[in-house]
Amino acid sequence: MKTLDIHIPRPPAHTEITIGAGALQKLFCRGKRAVIADETVLRLHPDKLPEGELIPLSAGEKVKCRQEKERLEELLIDAGFGKECTLIAVGGGSLMDLVGFVAATYCRGVNLILCPTTLLGMVDAALGGKNGINCSAGKNFLGTVYQPSQVFCDTDFLKTLPPRELGQGIVEMLKHGALASPSHFEKVQNGPLTDELLLESCAIKKSFIERDEVDHGARQMLNFGHTVGHALEKLSGYNVSHGAAVAFGCIAEALLSHRLGRLSESDFFHIATAFFPYAPEAVPKFSSDDFLEAMKRDKKALGGKVRLVLLQAIGKGECVAVEDQAILEVLDDLRRNYRLFQGRGTKADRPRASLR
């Protein structure tokens, strides 16, 4: 018996990111364009959309499903879009996740440009090429890693975002600081939100992506708060926002880090103080067993073990497998003492709506 190996290196991917007011005006690409836009953005910013054949889509997590993916693909086919086309996504993270997945598979890959209109989209969903849709197994269970050629973070869009939506992005920026930069963590917590701070947060995520594009090593650190958070989203039927769920997840995973002797009590309460303003007001009603079962079905689990990002300090952590009993004990503790932990935080520090 003979064997033959084929080695095909991944082509180098280059993504140009433009950040600032009016950034979208710099968009340029050749060929036929499909502008896939969030209906809310269409209503609030009709004059800011790039040229192209417009395809409106609804906003929110519900758009990330097989039915919407198929519907978008059929619309593109019916409109005659082929291999040389460009898909331009204008909207929040959910829309970009869907359009990115379609771009990766349509004609086996077409040019993709992302124009995030939410802070969460700018600092998280638009960066790094991850895309996907939800299914019965969990959040983002079906998807690819497919890099956009360009990302335009036009901060003019943030001026119409309600504080709750800004808060979802603040959570991801705090996460970046908790993983890699104590100074960034402090600046995000204390504000104000500036273009420079946005760039700094994107640069932190960039540093993880460039070391590990496909999420097999260093990039797994970016899952801090997301294993618990995704479980909460799924259990709630996606009625708890991504930002609120991840804030809860970051608090839970920081508490677990402390209980396992990795993180000091002062650092835990510092983290809890930063994230609680964006976490659910009331303790989630789901049992710890429900959480654990959802976490075991997470795509990051290996060999039946839940993998979590545990911190040693603000700015330092690692992704490790954690025993079920330790997770259950911490979730029970957090549920019993949610108000007590919450009291150490403050509801006064809400996200700053203006950029300077």
Structural description of this entry:
This protein folds into two domains: 16-160, Rossmann fold (3-Layer(aba) Sandwich), CATH 3.40.50.1970; 215-343, Up-down Bundle (Dehydroquinate synthase-like, alpha domain). 42% of the residues lie in helices and 16% in strands. The chain contains 13 helices and ten strands. The chain has helices spanning 39-44, 66-78, 93-105, 119-125, 163-180, 182-190, 195-211, 226-235, 242-259, 265-275, 288-296, 324-336, 338-343; strands at 16-20, 33-38, 53-57, 86-91, 111-116, 133-135, 138-142, 150-154, 306-313, 316-322. It has a six-stranded parallel beta sheet with strand order 1-8-5-4-2-3. It has a two-stranded antiparallel sheet with strand order 6-7. α3 (93-105) packs across α4 (119-125) and α5 (163-180) packs antiparallel against α6. The longest helix has 18 residues, at 163-180. The model is unreliable at 346-356 (pLDDT under 50).
Outline:
The protein is an alpha/beta fold. It has helices spanning 39-44, 66-78, 93-105, 119-125, 163-180, 182-190, 195-211, 226-235, 242-259, 265-275, 288-296, 324-336, 338-343; strands at residues 16-20, 33-38, 53-57, 86-91, 111-116, 133-135, 138-142, 150-154, 306-313, 316-322.
